[in-house]
Design brief:
- There is one protein chain.
- By secondary structure, the chain is mainly α.
- Helices cover 49% and strands 5% of the residues.
- It has helices at residues 18-21, 25-40, 46-57, 69-76, 86-109, 115-139, 156-176, 181-184, 193-207, 211-219, 238-244, 271-275, 304-317, 323-334, 358-372, 379-385, 402-407, and strands at 61-63, 142-144, 153-155, 228-229, 250-252, 276-278, 286-288, 299-300.
- The protein has a two-stranded antiparallel sheet.
- The longest helix has 25 residues, at 115-139.
- It is globular.
- Mean pLDDT is 95; it is low at 2-14.
């Protein structure tokens, strides 16, 4: 998975050795901060590619300038997307790079004498490892079982379960030894570690079809708190830097958010104005807003609305569906005012009333997930889970990068679509 170069030793006598880096709290902290940078910063980041590949594949976004070849290929879909696509290759590589380094942090932190600092390191690294496994499992039919040479592959659902196991280990570590203040002050502000672990466990349990487990994890998340990737004047929001500021790569479709008739946002839905803006004089008319509207805009690791909709879906998909609680949780999102949400995401619509079938409520959950989680990278997964027609997306699952296929004989066959 991790490409290896030639065997010459071009060592830098001024650089710390691996042994020095991975044996000290300071060195390990530098590595976990590096994981966040790889995941969140720039056009080569996992975050940019997650949001953009998903958005172009599911009709949320369109390509402004045809000179952006990789984006055009993804937007075209079908056989136009192949193993040479640079966005997919970068996405695959950064995910595996983060997993590789996170594994080293998790193993090395266990040997530290300060267990409270170690638990912070393990939890922080586990968040990015789980995200990276989960991100790959959303786009590929099978994912690497581990990192290294000629690794085997596991089914994508087992990938979600692997991400959950990583999270469970982190939860156990911080339960045994509370994260020290010295660790928290040594990493970038923004990520609420305990809530993020539970939110990601809820997300990936839902995607794995473990509804009871997902509901329990969702109920453990404090919805009044934020968890964010923060940006500043030196470390720019990657969506803003690449797309919003240039208006030359991708932009939002329009006020329908790319949804098909019957599922499009209500005219009064306040989330449309949150996620999109209008430029009355320069084309395209509709522009990225929301979490890509400025260089310093923080990007949520998860949204409170996602957690509430996970609860609604879990009730709907339970062995004995609880449609009363499904509607109750759904209405929390439908009626939420922007001021009541930590991020200002609120539909502000009237309560949904009446008697509905399971299928009708699931359609409504899909609709509101598509709006509430717009440009967050999860719509392709939702389209498959909710059984949306293939015609509504450009691809169902992605081909494997040729870099992987050329170096790993265990690489699976590409899916037909």
């Amino acid at each position: 998975i991790i490409p290896s170069g030639c065997k010459k030793d071009f060592s830098n006598p001024n650089a710390a050795t691996d042994e020095q880096v991975f044996s000290s709290p300071k060195g390990l902290t530098g590595v976990v901060v590096g994981l966040q940078r790889v995941y969140t910063l720039g056009r080569g980041s996992t975050l940019y590619n997650l949001v953009t590949i998903n958005g172009l594949t599911t009709n949320e976004l369109f390509v402004v300038n045809a000179g952006n070849t990789a984006e055009v290929q993804v937007a075209s879909g079908g056989t136009a997307v192949d193993g040479n696509n640079t966005m997919l290759t970068t996405f695959w590589t950064t995910c595996n790079k983060v997993i590789y380094d996170a594994d080293k942090v998790i193993a090395s932190a266990d040997a530290l004498s300060d267990k409270n600092y170690a638990s912070g390191l393990i939890a922080y690294a586990s968040i990015f490892k789980a995200l990276s496994i989960g991100d790959m499992a959303q786009f590929w039919e099978k994912v690497p079982a581990t990192t290294g040479t000629n690794v085997s592959f596991i089914d994508r659902v087992d990938g979600f379960k692997q991400a959950i196991a990583v999270i469970d280990n982190a939860i156990a570590k911080i339960a045994a030894n509370a994260i020290s203040a010295s660790f928290t002050s040594s990493v970038p502000a923004g990520i609420d570690i305990p809530n993020t672990l539970n939110a990601l466990k809820a997300r990936y349990s839902l995607y794995a079809g473990l509804y009871s487990q997902a509901l329990t994890a969702a109920n453990a998340v404090d919805l009044s708190k934020k968890s964010t990737f923060n940006y500043d004047a030196l470390s720019l929001n990657s969506i803003f830097e690449v797309a919003t500021a240039t208006n030359n790569v991708v932009q939002v479709k329009d006020s329908t958010l790319g949804m098909v008739p019957g599922l499009q946002p209500d005219f009064a839905d306040k989330r449309v104005a949150f996620f999109t803006s209008i430029n009355a004089t320069i084309q395209p008319r509709f522009r990225i807003n929301g979490f890509g509207n400025a260089a310093g805009t923080a990007f949520p690791v998860y949204l409170p609305g996602e957690i509430t909709l996970i609860k609604a879906e879990c009730y709907a998909r339970a062995t004995s569906p609880d449609l009363t609680n499904t509607l109750t949780e759904l209405n929390k999102v439908v009626t939420k005012q922007p001021a009541a949400d930590p991020f200002g995401v609120g539909a502000g619509l009237s309560t949904i009333t009446g008697t509905f079938t399971q299928a009708q409520l699931l359609d409504s959950i899909y609709k509101h997930r598509s709006i509430e989680l717009y440009m967050s990278g999860h719509k392709l997964e939702d389209m498959r889970r909710f059984g949306r027609p293939n015609a509504e997306r450009r691809r169902n699952l992605m081909p494997y990068p040729l870099r992987e296929r050329d170096n790993n004989p265990n690489t699976p066959a590409d899916p037909a679509f």
